[in-house]
């Protein structure tokens, strides 16, 4: 878990002040975990309309084959280096830059923003997963961050929503007064939804991946030493081989190809 920024809102750095470096043609913030959490809090406290994406190797591999996803990430408000492989690739490709050594890990960002946001009364909305996971997640968050304000939770169906359902969902988010909406819908669906919703209603929409499952205790997290050494993928593959084999066997080589091909080039089919 990263250290928390506990200063007042005025002490937080500008929301997206960090420089970016291209990774597989996508601008990734050169930002530390603390700075990432502070940036998200600042965006939300300012009432910004923003989409924030946690980019790991698989996300960038998908973007390298999907021009729509690649374009979405290129124009996003903030892309954070969620994968240790992304951090290492950026440090190798951009050796002329001094870049952070640590990734901005989704579950830690999630908890850090919840904890730090208590000081400014941030209003959170949880969108994704199942009702059982959301109930467990809400209970865990209230235990860890008793002053956190959760103004809505929603477990959408595991299918594409109709236009009427999308409109109703956006209306519920707006009516809740949420300043930050956490999306745990899976990649790349959550990335597309974050961008879509940010264009409809001012709030910060964070595509946070498996954070819901990990923080709620629904799925185990890799030991700290595996996370630090870039072996989290191995732990997760062993835990869910049928679901994650393609992510590893196809995604990792494709990411390496994209990251080291040319830093500024776009996707290839």
TrEMBL record:
Domain of life: Bacteria
Matches recorded under InterPro entries: WecG_TagA_CpsF (IPR004629)
Single GO MF annotation: hexosyltransferase activity
Record-linked Pfam families: Glyco_tran_WecG
Coiled-coil residues: none
Keyword set, alphabetical order: Glycosyltransferase, Transferase
Protein name as annotated: WecB/TagA/CpsF family glycosyltransferase
Annotated source species: Streptomyces mesophilus
């Amino acid at each position: 878990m990263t250290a928390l920024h506990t200063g007042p809102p005025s002490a937080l750095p500008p929301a997206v002040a960090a420089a970016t470096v291209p990774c597989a043609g996508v601008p990734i913030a050169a930002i530390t975990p603390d700075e990432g959490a502070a940036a998200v809090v600042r965006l939300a406290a300012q009432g910004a309309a923003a989409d924030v994406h946690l980019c790991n190797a698989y996300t960038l591999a998908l973007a390298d084959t999907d021009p729509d996803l690649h374009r979405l990430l290129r124009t996003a408000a903030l892309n954070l280096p969620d994968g240790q492989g992304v951090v290492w690739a950026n440090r190798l490709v951009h050796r002329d830059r001094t870049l952070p050594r640590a990734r901005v890990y989704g579950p830690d960002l999630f908890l850090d923003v919840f904890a730090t946001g208590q000081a400014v009364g941030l209003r959170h909305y949880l969108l994704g997963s199942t009702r059982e996971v959301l109930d467990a997640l809400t209970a865990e968050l209230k235990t860890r961050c008793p002053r956190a304000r959760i103004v809505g939770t929603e477990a959408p169906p595991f299918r594409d929503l109709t236009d009427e359902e999308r409109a109703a969902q956006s209306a519920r988010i707006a009516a809740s007064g949420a300043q930050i909406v956490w999306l745990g819908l899976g990649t790349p669906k959550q990335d597309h939804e974050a961008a879509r919703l940010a264009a409809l209603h001012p709030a910060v929409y964070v595509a946070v991946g498996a954070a819901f499952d990990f923080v709620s205790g629904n799925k185990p997290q890799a030991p700290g030493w595996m996370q630090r050494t870039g072996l989290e993928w191995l732990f997760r593959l062993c835990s869910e081989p049928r679901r994650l084999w393609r992510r590893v066997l196809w995604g990792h080589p494709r990411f390496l190809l994209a990251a080291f091909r040319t830093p500024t080039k776009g996707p290839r089919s």
